Amino acid sequence: MEKGYVQVYTGNGKGKTTAALGLSLRAAGAGLSVYIAQFMKQGGYSELKALARFDDLITIEQFGTGQFTVGKATDEDKAAGQRGLAAIRQALESGKYDVVVMEEAAVAEKLGILKTDDILEMIRIKPEGTELVITGRGASEQLMAAADLVTEMREIKHYYQEGVSARVGIEN
Questions:
Q1: Residue 167 lies in a domain
Q2: 0.85 exceeded by the pTM?
Q3: Mean model confidence pLDDT for the chain
Q4: Residue 70: pLDDT above 70?
């Protein structure tokens, strides 16, 4: 790509990860190379199985402890976040990827797993022709100000409130 932008998908509504993965599939369909780092996640999410079919164009790695952090981040959470940040830096500096996704990085930022300045540094070092996508609830004002595109998913109604758990293939 001649010009890559910074996109942020945030808000309390469903669809942030779905939007980033949809963009990744679209990019792969156009022959672009994609790197996805999943912060906060560890385990067999359905998107891993689907994206494995595109492993020639899409690389996905997880940098979470397998637990959603409530309250204060542990040293283990922070170490996993730093490994993910190092992988993002390497992906950006390699020149190998057209699209780089920092999935759930805004949540990691909000919980203190990643520092705002660390995410802003990834934006600063992003090559001109690389698209950078950052997802997660609660993106900071600094992160949104540094982005070229910010989309807020707003929850209006969700069946979770009626007791429906995350369903395989839809939310998980």
A1: no
A2: yes
A3: 92
A4: no
User: Does residue 29 form part of some domain?
Assistant: yes
- Cβ burial of 17 (10 Å; 0-12, 13-18, 19+) is buried
Residue 7: pLDDT over 80: yes
Query: Quick check: is 169 in a domain?
Result: no
Which residue in 13, 8, 14 sits closest to 144, CA to CA? 8
Domain that holds residue 126: 6-162
CATH of the domain at 85: 3.40.50.300
CA 92/CA 162 separation, integer angstroms: 42
Number of folded domains in the chain?
Answer: 1
Provide DSSP, 33-98: -EEEEEES--S--HHHHHHGGGTTTEEEEEES-SS---SSPPHHHHHHHHHHHHHHHHHHHHS--S
Q: What does DSSP assign to residue 156? A: S
